[in-house]
Specification:
The chain is of the alpha/beta class. The chain has a domain of 114 residues: Rossmann fold (3-Layer(aba) Sandwich), CATH 3.40.50. It is 35% helix and 14% strand. It is built from 10 helices and 10 strands. The strands form 4 sheets. The protein has a 3-stranded parallel beta sheet. It has a 3-stranded antiparallel beta sheet with strand order 4-5-8. Strands 6-7 form a two-stranded antiparallel ribbon. The longest helix is centred in the N-terminal third of the chain and has 16 residues. The two termini are 27 Å apart. The structure holds glutamic acid (GLU).
Length: 289
């Protein structure tokens, strides 16, 4: 039997709340119960929003919960070079293009098209408009000018071409429902996803699959809000010949109004609960563990 390897992978761009506590605890507890390993990874590619202070806060919260994890902690910001070879590989397969449109240009183009057609522009499972393509907005001369100037651009995956490379049905093993189910992956719903951002040489999707493979993660346990993104992760894993972990998307912890918790509403932050006198056992009880 291979040893299960699990991870908790927060972005240190705010303090942890009860939802993070739940995710960290079930990863940790599952690893311990199955004689596996528990790793921690800082998903800090956004080096302006993720700070050393916030990371220190995350570590403090996790230690307070009673968790222990292996060292060293992997910080994505220390591994930017690791994302270049897989990106180059996708480029060599003809699957990557430079996308010059700014957020504003995308927004305006979508609004114009919606006004003209009276139909909503297609959106990804997170509600963001699919990338319209540079040529839908810019003249060929303007695209050539931006290319010649090496204007700021993201690198995007050409989803149609990427799917054409996939021979087998794309799916993943999901254990979040209490049974072991094979789920059909539908990455096309995401359109041409970003692989590298304007100022950052990677993206969430690229780094999560590269790191899950680099760290030998066998079981990805994470919130239900990332369920749909798993389709993109499976696509990248197949294109890059990376192993497929088993996935377990867990329920989200909701607030008293039934809404998903967010880092911006401080009242469920672990640090705030701690200063209100909560104990780690109170947290476990609140999240149903
Ligand atoms: N860093 C992501 C987040 O904080 C989680 C990524 C994952 O678990 O795959 O939402």
């Amino acid at each position: 039997m291979t040893v299960p390897v699990l991870r908790f992978a927060p972005s240190p761009n705010g303090r942890l709340h009860l939802g993070h506590a739940y995710s960290a605890l079930i990863n940790h507890d599952t690893a311990r119960a199955r004689g596996g390993r528990f790793l921690l990874r800082m998903e800090d590619i956004d080096t302006t929003r993720c700070t050393a202070d916030l990371e220190a806060g995350v570590l403090e919260d996790l230690a307070w919960l009673g968790l222990d994890w292996e060292h060293p902690v992997r910080r994505q910001s220390e591994h930017f070079a690791d994302y270049a070879p897989p990106l180059a590989r996708l480029e060599a397969m003809g699957l990557v293009y430079r996308a010059y449109l700014t957020r504003r240009e995308i927004r305006d183009a979508v609004a114009r098209t919606e006004a003209r057609t009276g139909r909503p522009w297609p959106r990804d499972p997170d509600g963001a408009p699919l990338y319209p393509g540079d040529s839908a907005v810019l003249t060929p001369d303007e695209i050539a000018r931006r290319a010649a100037d090496n204007a700021p651009h993201a690198l995007r995956l050409d989803m149609t071409r990427a799917l054409a490379k996939i021979a087998q049905p794309l799916d993943w093993i999901e254990e979040g429902g209490g049974t072991r189910d094979r789920i059909a992956a539908e990455p096309a719903r995401w359109g041409d996803v970003v692989l590298a951002r304007k100022e950052i040489p990677t993206s969430y999707h690229l780094s999560v699959v590269v790191d899950d493979a680099a760290q030998g993660i066998t079981h990805v346990m994470r919130g239900r809000d990332l369920y749909a993104a798993t389709a993109v992760h499976r696509l990248l894993q197949v294109l890059l010949d990376l192993p497929a972990p088993v996935y377990h998307h867990h329920a989200l912890i909701l607030d008293a109004n039934g809404r998903k918790l967010s880092k911006s509403d401080g009242d469920t932050a672990l640090a705030a609960l701690r200063s209100d006198g909560w104990t780690p056992e109170d947290v476990r009880a609140r999240v149903g563990l």
